[in-house]
Each structure stands twice: as C-alpha cells, then as structure tokens.
Amino acid sequence: MLSPSSTLIALLVFSIALLVVLIVRLKVHASIALIFVAVALALATHMPLNKLVSTVEGGIGGTLSFLAMVMAFGAILGKMLDDSGGAQQIAQTLLRCFGTNNAPWVMAVIGFVVGIPVFSDVGFLLMAPLVAVVAKNANMSKMRVGVPLLVSLHVIHCIVPPHPAATAVTNILGADVGSVILAGILIGIPCAATGAAYICYITRKERHAALTDEVESLDKNLGNQELPGFGITLFTVLLPLLIMVGKTILQGFFPPGTQGRNIVDFLGDPFTALLLSVCFAYWSLGLSRGSGLEKLSYLTGESYRQIANVMLIIGCGGALNAVISASGIADVLASALTALPISPILLAWLLTGLLHLAVGSATVAMLGAAGIIAPMLHANPALHPVAMTLAIGSGAIGFVQFTDSLIWLGKEYLSLSMGNALRSISVATMLASILGLGGALLANLVL
Q1: Cα gap 418→424, rounded to integer Å
Q2: Which letter, b or e, does each residue of 314-334 get, where b requires 16 or more Cβ atoms within 10 Å of its Cβ?
Q3: pTM for this predicted structure
Q4: Where along the chain do its domains lie?
C-alpha cells in the first residue's frame, strides 16, 4: 500500500508519461495535451470540481498575464527586423568584416544577435536563404555554415529573456530578469561557441577556398534593397536587454521604496522595456525609412500570428503547474528531491533534459521542470534562483533528438541525412547544454 506522498509522486510520473504518449505517439497538440493531463491529474488527486476549474483558469491567466504582452512585443520586434532587412544588414556587415571563410563563427554570432527578439525556429527560417548563399560563396557545406546558426538561436531561446520560456521560468522561480540576462549571455556565448567549434571540427576535412569577390557576390545574391544602418539595427535589437540589465545595475543606487527605485523598477520591467523598444523600432526600422502607420499596423497584426501557438502552449503549461501546486504534489516532491544525494542544479538540468527528450519541446520541458523545481528552490535558501533558472534553460538546450522539431527543421533546410543531423545538431546542442550546466553550477557558487 503506497503512502499518500508516494501516491502523489506516482500520479505525477504517470501524468508525465501520459503527456509523452499524447504528444509523441498520438500527435495531440501540446496545448490540448497539457490541459487534458492537468484536468486528469486534478481529478486523480480528488480536487473538488469547483476548485479544478478555477485552478486551471488561474494557472493559464497567471502565466499569460505576465507573458502575453511580453511575447507580443517581442514578436513585433522580430517582424520589424525581418521586414526592414535589419537581419540581412547584420549578416552582411559581419560577413563583410570577417569574411565568408570564417562563416561558421560569423553565423554563430548572427544567431546570437538575431535570436534575441525572435523565436529560434522563426529566426532559422528567416536566415535560411542566407545560409544557402554563404555556403555557396564560401564553398562550404550547409551543415558547416547552418548548424552553428541553429545552435546559437537555440541557446538564446532557452536561457536569455525576453524569450517566452526563459522569461516564464525566471518569473516562476522569482529570479531577477536583468541578472538572468547577464548571466545567460555570459554562459550562452561559450555554449554557442562550443557548438560552432564542434561543427568546425567534424567538417575540418571539407575543401573550401577563399573567393576574391565573395562580398560582392554575397550582396548580389541577397538582393540590392536599401537596408537600415548596422548601428541603428543592432541598437534596436539590443535595446530591451540594455534597459532590463540597466534596471539591475541602477537598483543598487536607489533604496527600496524610494521614488527613484520605483521609476527604475517600472522602466526595467520586461513589459515596459519591450514596449519602449517596440516604439523605438517603429521609428528606427519603420517611420524613419518611409513606412507609414498603416504598414506598421499591418506588420503588427502579422507578427501576432507567429506567437499564437507558443502562447497557448505556455498558458496550458501554466495550468498544469497550477494543478501540481494546488494538489500538494509540489510540496511532497520538493521534500523528496531535497533529500536526494544529488546537486539540485544537476537535478533541475537533468529533469528538464529528460522532459525535453520525452515531449520534444524545449518550452514544455522548461515550464514542466520549473513547476516541479520551484518548491524545492523555496525550501532551500542556499540555492540561487538565477542559477536554477540557468540550469533549467541549459537542460532544455540538450537532448535534441527525433521528438524535437528542431532537428527536422535543420535536416530539411540544410539538406542533411538523419545520421548527419544527429551527428551535428544533437551532439552540438548536447555539448552546449553540458557547458551550460557548468555555468549554472558556477553561478550558484558566485551569486
């Protein structure tokens, strides 16, 4: 006969298994699967029906109340970057400065920069034509050029706010968003570089020669449209991060409760920072280049189409987290996990990675792990929220296998065999994930 605590944990394990079957085996959309499992878990734990509905609705509303407009503003920034040719300008400038012979490293940098305001899959589709052109001009395979870009985009997506999953985990664990951004960037750079270095190593026997007219040929292939300036484009992309990190720095100069501190907190909140950045992007990438308000309105509406899917998944993930908490499973699990002879940082990383492997979605894995890990974090003051946030994000970077659309996206657009896709994308992301785990362990010691 199982004890009440063991029964609750067994129900959670069964729920995760059911989620995997629904998403992977039965191909049910992740949002529907999450809601179904949340309701089933609530019924299995004998939650009153009136409380069940309010818990599910509260989980969705509580998650999206913080994230909805943050996601919307981020989507607008990404759309403005795409429509104006800003992403193309960043790519052309970096390739012109460093040459297409250094294309793997340049593409990793491009992914790191362009990935800040856009989702990883959207960013890759946006840059896919560039990958083909650069590979042709540099006489390199698309794997050598494209995988470093894909890894960089994926790293940023998992560990650096204002990306939705990273921002949601930051909020759930109560971490300071500016600190997560700073630490995420510091850890993300070597993670992305590790992926690029690995790809350069496994493709080291490729034969490629420098082309004297590489820049001119690249410009011709990418088109001759007038592009926004590199400096103003880069500043527009980085502005939300600069504002949020500025909040973290300036907080030390203003005591809590003062008017100055209130202003700093208001301006540095992700909502305000992204709203200000969108207003600036409307001018820098739109109005200043001759776009009218009607076109900006159209682009804004189009940008919302990109976020509907992930917004529903995140909201439904919030519903499952709310049920886990309200049913008492979270408290029981926190006590059980705390007693295990394993580093909580390692545990958070491994749990997220296994969830990612099972369900094939970094976003779902991060939200699921955050709901399980949060009570343990609150019960152990020695753990730093920023480190735990990075551990969850790093876990989501790795374990990219058949279940993840990322590997299929890379396989098709880079013309890879499944063997090469696994050898390149899966291994590169796993190496980046392990390095991220090391960064999270270090962050917990330093912070």
Answers
A1: 10
A2: bbbbbbbbbbbbbbebbbbbb
A3: 0.79
A4: 4-446
Sorted by sequence, the CB contacts under 8 Å of residue 17 that are 6+ apart come out as none
Q: How far apart are CA 190 and CA 207, in angstroms?
A: 27
Q: For residues 424 and 199, is the Cβ–Cβ distance under 8 A?
A: yes
End-to-end CA distance of the chain: give it in Å, rounded.
Answer: 44
What Å distances lie between residue 48 and 13, 107, 371, CA to CA?
22, 53, 21
Question: How far, in Å, CA of 225 to CA of 60, rounded?
Answer: 43
Helix count and strand count (H, E) for the chain = 22, 0
- Cis-peptide, bond into residue 162, ω within 30° of zero: yes
pLDDT for 215: 47
pLDDT by residue (tens digit) across 99-116? 878 889 999 999 898 888
Which of 399, 403, 407 minimizes the C-alpha distance to 369? 399
Query: In angstroms, rounded to a whole number, what is the distance separating the alpha carbons of residues 392 and 397?
Result: 9
**Nearest Cα residue to 140 out of 92, 220, 206:** 206
* For range 216-224, the mean pLDDT: 53
Q: What sign has the CA pseudo-torsion 106, 107, 108, 114?
A: positive
Contacts of 60 (CB under 8 A, 6+ apart): 315, 316, 318, 319
